[in-house]
Design a protein that fits this description.
two-stranded antiparallel sheet, eight-stranded mixed β-sheet, alpha/beta, Rossmann fold, 345 residues, globular
């Protein structure tokens, strides 16, 4: 099955399983455009060239996640002593996004008195790639298990399981950071990561509050209901398992204008909506009234009804999916500020 066919079938599955967030209609639907001269980042630029406002302190950090170095960016109010512990918000972008896309949001949250940690998933933005051997490793292994080999870097793909592990490891790092109040950690996700934060909060009790905006939060289909896309996804997974097909090219646009192809059959098992019933942390769900990429009912609305802790559902009137990044960005962040003030301060 070719990449183009996989993309078309993935789009069909997205509509049927509540993952139609993958179906951006065109390039103008993207919150930012990738810089062709620098495929590792978006047009918002690398951290080394970024200058935060005078009232916000900014630094970059390295975080290890399953042996891969992740790029992190930290923001905090400059008026607060640099060694003072602060309630900290961890954020990561949705499908194909990078930490640089969240800088304006991070500044707004820092000005509200929070420390903010944003990060790039492995193989995205300024994080390192996961690498795979291009040939068999030597057996027996030499002393120290070290050997020289050719490897291939894999970048710009979407694997929700790996991205979830990156979230957990970023929280591991943050909980041990001297400037982070480990008893007051919040998480915020958007679009595809709006489902990731539900999964993470369900499995990590260090999360004390969460915000999911315009989230794609699919659940398992009812028992016995056939999934027409199971067969093609599993066929792709079988070809990968047999070495007949490798990882897609970095940032491959196989689903609408979104960058990054899904891997094998992993989306079939990605059902963060099932995790919502395990979430006891206060949870805010923000949805777009005119959401055009998926139905809010089986996604954020259903998840908001399942969570066990304090919860709130806010419908932002008059906007589509990407309105939270554009005309209603500041308002959406203000909703998050109010929520975190209530439960983290």
């Amino acid at each position: 099955m070719g990449v183009g066919n996989l993309g078309r079938r993935a789009a069909m599955l997205a509509m049927g399983a509540g993952l139609a967030v993958l179906l951006a209609a065109g390039a103008d639907a993207q919150p930012a455009r990738r810089n062709p001269a620098d495929p590792a980042t978006w047009s918002t630029g690398r951290a080394r060239d970024y200058r935060a406002p005078e009232d916000v302190a900014f630094r970059t950090v390295d975080i290890m996640s399953e042996g891969v170095r992740l790029h992190g960016e930290m923001f905090r109010p400059r008026a607060v002593p640099p060694t003072q512990k602060l309630p900290t918000i961890v954020m990561a972008h949705g499908w194909g996004g990078v930490a640089a896309n969240f800088r304006a949001d991070a500044v707004q949250l820092a000005r509200a008195g929070f420390q903010v940690l944003t990060f790039d998933y492995r193989g995205w933005g300024e994080s390192d790639s996961r690498v795979i051997l291009t040939g068999p490793e030597p057996l027996p292994l030499p002393p120290g298990r070290k050997f020289t080999a050719e490897v291939q870097a894999i970048r710009g793909y979407v694997d929700p399981g790996e991205q979830a592990q990156d979230w957990f490891n970023v929280i591991n790092w943050a909980a041990a950071e001297p400037t982070v109040d480990a008893e007051r950690i919040g998480i915020r996700g958007s679009s595809f990561s709006g489902g990731l934060v539900v999964h993470v909060a369900a499995h990590d009790d260090r999360v004390k509050a969460l915000v999911s905006q315009v989230g794609s939060i699919p659940s398992s289909p009812p028992p016995g209901e056939p999934n027409p896309m199971a067969a093609p996804f599993r066929a792709a997974a079988a070809r990968m398992a047999r070495g007949e097909m490798g990882y897609p090219e970095p940032g491959a646009q196989v689903i609408g204008a979104l960058m990054g192809a899904p891997i094998g059959d992993k989306l079939l098992r990605w059902t963060p909506g099932d995790d919502a019933a395990r979430v006891s942390a206060p949870a805010l769900f923000i949805v777009a009234e005119n959401e055009e990429l998926f139905d809010n009912r089986p996604n954020a609305i259903a998840a908001s009804e399942r969570v066990k802790g304090p919860r709130k559902l806010v419908v932002m009137p008059g906007i589509k999916h990407y309105g939270v990044y554009n005309e209603k960005r500041e308002e959406a962040v203000a909703l998050a500020v109010d929520w975190f003030r209530q439960y983290l301060k």
